[in-house]
Amino acid sequence: GDVRIRCAECVEPFELCVQCFSVGASLNPHKPTHRYRVLDDLSFPIFSDDWGADEETRLLEALSSFGPGNWSEVAEHVGSKTKQQCYAHYVECYVDSVKRRRVEAGDDTDGDADGGDDDDMRPMTIEERKLADERDALAAANDPTSAAAAAAAAAPPPPPPRVAGNQQDITGYHARRSEFDTPHEPEAELPLAELELRADDTPAEKSRKLQMLRIYQKRLAERERR
């Protein structure tokens, strides 16, 4: 293809053909002494910033010749990419982006018998993918369902249900011990539910609380014996 010379110093893109470059052509602000880059007409990116159009062409040629899956041969034909890079680029730009385009167009099926709309089958360009990413990010930020789902997932689990006395008799579930069997004197823990030993307890209070603990220990011993 045609080879172009691009100035590497001018703020605005400035390119010359080989003939003009060879005679030192200049056009303000470009100077013949500026550094430059040699470009061919297929080095610009289309679907990905790190893949030029010439590489895309060689990739499609290789896929046509060797088929998807023979990535070593494909990479050898492309010449400038590894087989892993060829595979990842093919999936991202020629498979996933086509599916994404069809979904955004309101068609998440595989198309009709003749392959569907040709435009729906075209990979998304760099600009189209950036716009789609921005739309997705905006939709996610404004989606109350998504925020509610995240909040629900982060919420702590509910406490175990409180079981009344008659329900406990029926089900055999003891909520304070999280057990289903009904042991000897199942209400033995109730007097201790609110028991708390404090440093400022009076001697009478300490004596009463210790007596409650001794009674509870006797009940536990009897429960264990049974």
TrEMBL record:
Residues 140-154 have a biased composition (Low complexity). One of its GO terms (cellular component) is nucleus. It comes from Pycnococcus provasolii. PANTHER family: TRANSCRIPTIONAL ADAPTER 2-ALPHA, TRANSCRIPTIONAL ADAPTOR 2 ADA2 -RELATED. This is Transcriptional adapter. Pfam families: Myb_DNA-binding, TADA2A-like_3rd, ZZ_ADA2. Residues 51-94 form the Myb-like domain. GO terms for molecular function: chromatin binding; transcription coactivator activity; zinc ion binding. CDD domains: SANT (cd00167), ZZ_ADA2 (cd02335). Residues 106-120 have a biased composition (Acidic residues). Residues 51-98 form the HTH myb-type domain. Keywords: Metal-binding, Zinc, Zinc-finger. Residues 176-187, 195-208 have a biased composition (Basic and acidic residues). The keyword Metal-binding applies. Residues 104-123, 140-209 are annotated as: Disordered. It comes from the Eukaryota. GO terms for biological process: chromatin remodeling; regulation of transcription by RNA polymerase II. The keyword Metal-binding applies. Residues 46-98 form the SANT domain. Residues 1-44 form the ZZ-type domain. Gene3D superfamilies: 3.30.60.90, Homeodomain-like.
